[in-house]
Design brief:
The protein is of the alpha/beta class. The protein is built from nine helices and 13 strands. The strands form three sheets. Strands 7-8-9-6-10-11-12-13 form an eight-stranded mixed beta sheet, with helices on one face. A three-stranded parallel beta sheet has the order 3-4-5, with helices on both faces. The radius of gyration is 20 Å and the shape is globular.
Length: 306
C-alpha cells in the first residue's frame, strides 16, 4: 500500500523495534517515509503524526492503541481489533474523551464486490443457510509441527485459525446478518492452538457455518455459499479479498466480477481518509459497533479452545 499514491495520505513516520531499526530505515528510504523510529513511543511524540496504523501481532494491539490514543492520535488497528469487548469499549471511551477516531482495518467490508453482494442479497429471499470458508494451508504449519511456533500459531499472541482466518468470515457474516443469537466453536486443537475449526452462528431464521483452516489445503474448492428461498450467491477464495461472485435466481445465473487489479487495501483507506479528514464521527461509530459485534463473537468462540 505504501507504493500506492492516495490523495490525503502522507507517510509521516514508521516505527519498529530496536532490533529491526535497519529495516525501518530501509523502508523509509524506499517509500519516502519522512522519519523512522526504533521505539513507537517516540513516534507518538511526533506532531506530524496524526493517525497511527497498528499492524503488530494481535497481543500488542490493545496497549499500542491505548498509548496512541493517550497521545492524541487517531487509530487504525489491524484485525482482530482486540481480544475482548471490555478492551474495545475501554479504547472507544478513551478515543471519545480525547476527541480521536478509532477504527478496525478489515478490507472485506469496503471492497466494491462486497457492497454489491450485500445489495444482491435481497434477491435471494429469506436466507436460511450460509457456509463461509477460508481454508489455506499455512506456510508456517510444517515448522509448527516440528515445534517451531511462529506467532500465527501461538495462542498467547492471538494465533490460530479463529483469530487469523475465521475473523474474515465473522466480519462478513456480521455485515450481512448482524449479531447471532448463539455461538459455538468446534476446533481441531494441536499443541494448544486451533489449527482449524468450524464456528457455528445461530440466528432465529438461519444457521451460518464458518470454516477456517491453517492445516488444510482447498486449492480451487475454497467455496462459500449464501442460500435463500429464491436463490443463492456463491464465491471462491478468501472472504477478505472478494473480487467476484455468482448470483443464481429463477431469472438465471450471473457472474459478477470487479476490478481484479485493485489493491484490496485501497477502498478501506480511501474511506479512512474521508472519515478522518471529515471527522465523520457517525461513520466511525458505526464501524466500531460492527467491530464490537465481531469481537463478541470471537470472544465467545475462544472459550471453546480453553
Amino acid at each position: 500500500l505504501t507504493a500506492l499514491p492516495l490523495p490525503g495520505l502522507s507517510l509521516a513516520a514508521i516505527a519498529t523495534t530496536k532490533r529491526s531499526a535497519a529495516t525501518g530505515q530501509s523502508l523509509a528510504a524506499e517509500y519516502g517515509i519522512q522519519r523512522a523510529y526504533d521505539d513507537y513511543l517516540d513516534m507518538l511524540k511526533d506532531d506530524n503524526v496524526d493517525t497511527v496504523y497498528v499492524a503488530t501481532p494481535s497481543s500488542m494491539h490493545f496497549q499500542m492503541c491505548l498509548d496512541s490514543l493517550e497521545a492524541g492520535k487517531n487509530v487504525i488497528c489491524e484485525k482482530p481489533f482486540v481480544f475482548t469487548a471490555k478492551e474495545a469499549l475501554e479504547l472507544k471511551q478513551l478515543a471519545d474523551r480525547k476527541g480521536c477516531l478509532i477504527t478496525e482495518a478489515i478490507t472485506s467490508r469496503y471492497l466494491p464486490a462486497f457492497r454489491a453482494l450485500k445489495e444482491d442479497l435481497a434477491l435471494l429471499g429469506p436466507i436460511h443457510v450460509a457456509s463461509l470458508n477460508y481454508t489455506q494451508y499455512s506456510s508456517r504449519y510444517d515448522r509448527f509441527l516440528e515445534g517451531d511456533i511462529a506467532p500465527a500459531f501461538n495462542p498467547r499472541l492471538g494465533g490460530g485459525a479463529l483469530l487469523d482466518l475465521n475473523v474474515y468470515n465473522v466480519h462478513l457474516a456480521i455485515s450481512l446478518f448482524g449479531a447471532p443469537l448463539d455461538v459455538h466453536y468446534f476446533p481441531n486443537m494441536q499443541k494448544g492452538v486451533d489449527t482449524s475449526g468450524v464456528l457455528e452462528l445461530s440466528y432465529d431464521d438461519k444457521q451460518a457455518s464458518l470454516v477456517a483452516a491453517k492445516d488444510s489445503e482447498a486449492f480451487f474448492h475454497n467455496q462459500s455459499l449464501l442460500a435463500g428461498e429464491k436463490g443463492a450467491i456463491s464465491f471462491t477464495g478468501s472472504p477478505g479479498d472478494l473480487r467476484r461472485y455468482r448470483l443464481e435466481t429463477a431469472a438465471g445465473q450471473t457472474d459478477r466480477t470487479f476490478d481484479p487489479d485493485l489493491h484490496r487495501m485501497v477502498p478501506e483507506f480511501k474511506e479512512f481518509i474521508r472519515m478522518f479528514d471529515g471527522r465523520d464521527q457517525a461513520a466511525a461509530d458505526r464501524a466500531f459497533a460492527h467491530s464490537l459485534q465481531v469481537i463478541t463473537v470471537l470472544e465467545a468462540g475462544r472459550r471453546f479452545t480453553a
